[in-house]
Fold this sequence. Notes:
By secondary structure, the chain is α/β, with parallel strands linked by helices. Among the domains are: 211 residues, Rossmann fold, CATH 3.40.50.620; 147 residues, Isoleucyl-tRNA Synthetase, Domain 1, CATH 1.10.730.10. 49% of the residues lie in helices and 14% in strands. Helix 9 links the parallel strand 13 and strand 14. The longest helix has 31 residues. The protein is elongated. The model has no long low-confidence stretch (mean pLDDT 95).
Amino acid sequence: MAAEKTPFYITTAIAYPNGVPHIGHAYEYISADALARFKRLDGYDVFFLTGTDEHGQKMQQTAAAEGIDTRALADRNAATFRALQETLGSSFDRFIRTTDTDHHAASQEIWRRMEANGDIYLDKYAGWYDVRDEMFYAESDTSTGDDGGRVATDTGHPVVWTEEDALFFRLSKYQDPLLELYETTPDIIGPDVRRNEVVSFVKGGLNDLSVSRTTFDWGIPVPGHDGHVMYVWVDALTNYLTGVGFPDDTEMFERYWPADLQIIGKDIIRFHCVYWPAFLMSAGIAVPKRVFAHGFLFNRGEKMSKSVGNVVDPYALIEAFGLDPVRYFFLREVSYGQDGSYSPDAIVARINADLANDFGNLAQRTLSMIGKYFDHVVPVPDDISDTDAALLATADELHGRVRYHFDQEAIHLGLEALWEVLGETNRYISAEQPWKLAKTDLDRTGTVLYVCAEVLRIVAILTQPVMPSACAKILDLLAIPAHARDFAHLGDRLDAGNQLPTPVPVFPRHEAKDPT
Ligand code: ME8
């Protein structure tokens, strides 16, 4: 029953739908989905929010360049982002669009609260603006780019000179409260390297932030200030509140807010760890418990960009390798929180070694021998040797070990722990040689195969967050009923006497190929 479970609210960044999604977006969705699924299987009442960030100058400019209405651009591309999430098997509970009506109401409400707290004032903005990142820059943070134009020094993105009437947020007032927040709740930002980056940025001093725009109108109107629309990041960040019922559905809001885990990419840490908590403190709303920044994905070590022509289409990868192998690859290969590189060769190598050999072969050997020697019926284990008991004990410890890693968003280490046990089990089966034992000692053969099948059950249950359909196939082959696949059932033992279906291979081998 949902009401008895502990709530867990997890979010992704909401993407700009000014173009089609790329593999970096897919990576964020896959990783957040694995974390959401893990918590759900571990007994939490999870609410998983994702969506699209549809306002701002970039959207308006892109639509104008395409000669279409901004709303039409948003509708078309938001549908593409949603379809990608569905293709990726993302288990989101709501796909929010910042053009949704309830989001307008929520954004205006947080604005009113910040204003009521005395944190908004009218002034003039004169400075640089990066449309691509929707970000203001002081003169000192810009320089002359390679082509002679002005660029943001840290990203190299072009900036344009902007002068307009604007409302400002008293960000400077929050410097000390923010530093105190990072000090008293160090877990609020992960990984540590990002927290250190944020702390030194805030220690360097905060300027007040321009939070309204008056030179275009594609945004949420500022209440009480005609002609002003909100700076896109104010409304974008507020999506996390809207998604759980702010301000009207107080029951839902009190249940899920503050968010337990906000997953974002490392390039938007300042917005989420400086501006966002400052807005919330100003509005008298609790700050999120944790913001975790994943790294960036590179194509063969190179930054993906449209001009270089190396942007990876996630659909092409799924088409080439299958969904679950692609999910596994990114979550195992890249240390979560750090940058990572992708190449078709690396994917093929991982799939063949980890999936086809380690996991697939173990399942195939075990299940086909249960078929051959026991007529597809799970054998009754005979005397359990010390070796059997040690292997089963190692498998039983996996739940705690994997949870420990997932709780620190170390998804790759959780998978490593699971694969260590698969490796041990493969060594066990090679040492015990059940195919030879079957000629002399069928009881011992049955015990060995039972132990292997039991490890497979435990590993398949715990790997579901990363490879939901492949693990479901393995659990089907072990005849584990649907209700016995959550982590609360890890301590059950496989039922001897279960009739198993004819085994089919779950993880085919791949030849090297380049889908890009
Ligand atoms: O930043 N590798 O939207 P966005 C990994 N609308 N992650 C990547 C990536 C890459 N190569 N490129 C982008 C925005 N991302 C804002 C967010 S949230 C209130 C508003 C990640 O479409 C990026 O870090 O540019 C971000 O977390 C997400 O994709 C959306 O990026």
